[in-house]
Amino acid sequence: MIRRTISICLMICAITAVGSPACRKKQQTSNEPPATAKEPDSAPGTANVAPPTEEKGPQPQQAESKPTPIQYVDVTQQAGIRFRHNSGAFGQKYLPETMGSGCAFLDYNNDGWQDILLINSKDWPGHQRRRSFPALYRNNKDGTFTDVTREAKLMVEMYGLGCAVGDYDNDGNVDIFITCLGPDYLFRNRGNGTFENVTKRAKTTDEDFSTSAAWFDYDKDGNLDLFVCNYVEWSIEKDLFCTLDGQNKSYCTPESYRGQSSRLYRNLGNGTFEDVTQKANLFDPTGKSLGVAVLDYDRDGWPDLFVANDTQPNKLYRNNGNGTFTECAMAAGVAFNEAGVARAGMGVDAADYDGSGYPSIIVGNFSNEMLGLYHNEGQGLFIDEAPTSTIGQATLLSLTFACFFYDYDLDGRQDIFTANGHVADDINTVQPKITYAQTQQLFRNLGRKRFEDISRRLGVPFRRPLVARGAAYGDFDNDGDLDLLITTNNGPAYLWRNDGGNQNRFIKFKTVGTRSNRDGIGAKITIHTTDGSRQWQTVKSGSSYCSQSELIVTFGIGKAEKVESAEVRWPSGKVEKIENLAANQLVTLKEGSGVLSLQPMPLGVSQAHQIR
Question: Can you tell me the distance from the alpha carbon of 225 to that of 170, in angstroms, rounded to the nearest whole number?
């Protein structure tokens, strides 16, 4: 409580002393009524190699108890996923080798089944041992996947890191943007199972050290714009010698290098983009950005940006609604930890985890820094709840890259997943309590801003230490509950199936924009269930670390048999309401037309693993 009081006082002082008039004005502006949500009652490639044996080592302490009714099962090999990430490491310990790469769930062929995209890096010049490519796996609708990278024309060598998926040209097919060390790539989906490299034509060539990215329509003109995080000024020629023991070379921290400004590309609607970073007031060469989340933190209807920076203050960019942004992180209380110190921010996400009506923020940080859980107090102020919660203690030793909110048990509350793994393979020699490979964590939302670490009760995968980096959620088997896709640094990718999450009921929404962008990215969906509770989510790109989860929005509704009403607020401003929707179905909504289709779920794959 003392910590919390001091933190509140510090943040109020920050607003008084340094908060810009634009930030203060933003806090007083909203086009929505105050939140009245009722929180639900309690409990409602270079692929083709097999995964290596698990690494052993001391792990963060977690409660040991009997398994939960929901278990995650590693189905990587039986699903046919044979991808292995190549960092290019050969002993020189170049900084980019620590970064890993991301992944995505996407439906690239519009067949209603989530496919998988895995990003890869490559060998360094002069040390080529093998060729490496990103991997696209087509969902076979039977629990298995087929590697279609070659036929999709995505066999392009690059030092890839992250990805973002969105239909930038509004033709009904999702396109792929891949961030890289060096030039990024934009692949246009031709709609026939193949992609075309349109990077130069689209003018999205960024030669910097790019990491995460997000599609969003910041000016609400109906075309998806693109925000790209950039990291530090690094090259082989600029590589520095760093050491942990005074003798042997270790990986340098980002503090050793100058930062790079992230970029904003405005979609001109003709297949090309304009770099409007400076016009939008987003140019910041001090940033060392690794994660980005799109959120409307003050509920004024305009998409804002939260950017996680590594050893530099995080940034919260408020959308002014006129093509420009105002940086408000310090005034809002999300720039630093509660002691006023910048942390090593990596992955990030935003969601309303407590039914307040406002989106809160999570940030993955370095070991000995703990996860950041910034609760949105309204009026533009956030409070980091992690230091006084279970989450803070449980993540103190973890080094978290990807993190996100999602409802793993479909009880109507947003839970938290973190993907962990250290950057230094020799960290255990200088910090015996911290290991290179670490276990992943899942925090079940108990309501009233309380979480429980149930990781070790969720099955064998959560007890296996990994050097995890990217992660995404998606329902690859169309059984209703949300599965996990995880990448590891210089190692395999993993597909973990959720078994039993669909014991509770759910409802899913796919959005099709007309005046708004075709994917409906930015649409806010609010549902009311028969028990009087209300939930809302937005269709979003970005979040996590260098990864993207499925665009379909999944609401867990516990034991409710139907949704009394659903309201969709499209990016264009149009609002539509639908009533009396049965549970356990996918609802496709088209802007201006309402319900386009209703698809009962689960679909017709083998249901042996489901617990109904």
Answer: 12
